[in-house]
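Structure ticket #2291
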Amino acid sequence: ADGPEKRPDPSEPGSKKTYTKKEFLDLYGEKKGANVWKKAGKAIATVEAKAPKKADGPEKRSDPSEPESKKTYTKKEFLDLYGEKKGAAIWKKAGQGAKKAEKEKAEKPVKVTDEKKKFTLKRESEEEAIGWSRDQKFNLIDVDEDSVAAKAGLTAGLRVLSVNGTRVNKKTNIPKIVKEAGLEVELEAVEVRKDSNEFFTRREFSEYYAADGEAKWAKAGKKRTKKVKKDTEATEEKKEAAAEN
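Resolution: structure written out below.
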């Protein structure tokens, strides 16, 4: 029963004397002594709960009554300015406002723009194939090695935005535009990265994932790099095998 902790006897409210648990048991007996010890503990907890907390600290908050001001105050400064009760209420309100602002900031998309790149396709004849495969959104899925597209610098992971100044959409007939353009075709494209089996631009990542957009974009980029490295190694192995045969 005994230990270093001591508590005041509830039956002696004016006394500053304290006792160990063993002393309570010796004084009141096993059962009553345990109950009085417990009651003394509850009394201490109640007093501690009612005791004023240390007001000041390093944290500072904006005063809700000064929405345009960038000045911030500690809790003690709020209490000194508004009084104990009102100051505590305003401090709490200021904290709620700060949390709301942080939440809105976290949910707000980071403004990013897609970097547009220009490419020039040069063909020797109008019948020469460009050498690419794309999906319905004009995302390049694959580019043939040594093709017109590859020589122009096009790679998988780009989305074609315009062909000879004509904006691309679902109804755009790229083969027709390319044929009518002659032997040189100007393209404009932006980078896309894969997420959930679909391709999205950096701006689309930002719009969908809000504050997490940049992190998701970077992660998709790492996956893309690993895939390209793996595909390149596989291609090199095939070339070596073909050379040996």
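Closing remark: The two ends are 88 Å apart (CA to CA).
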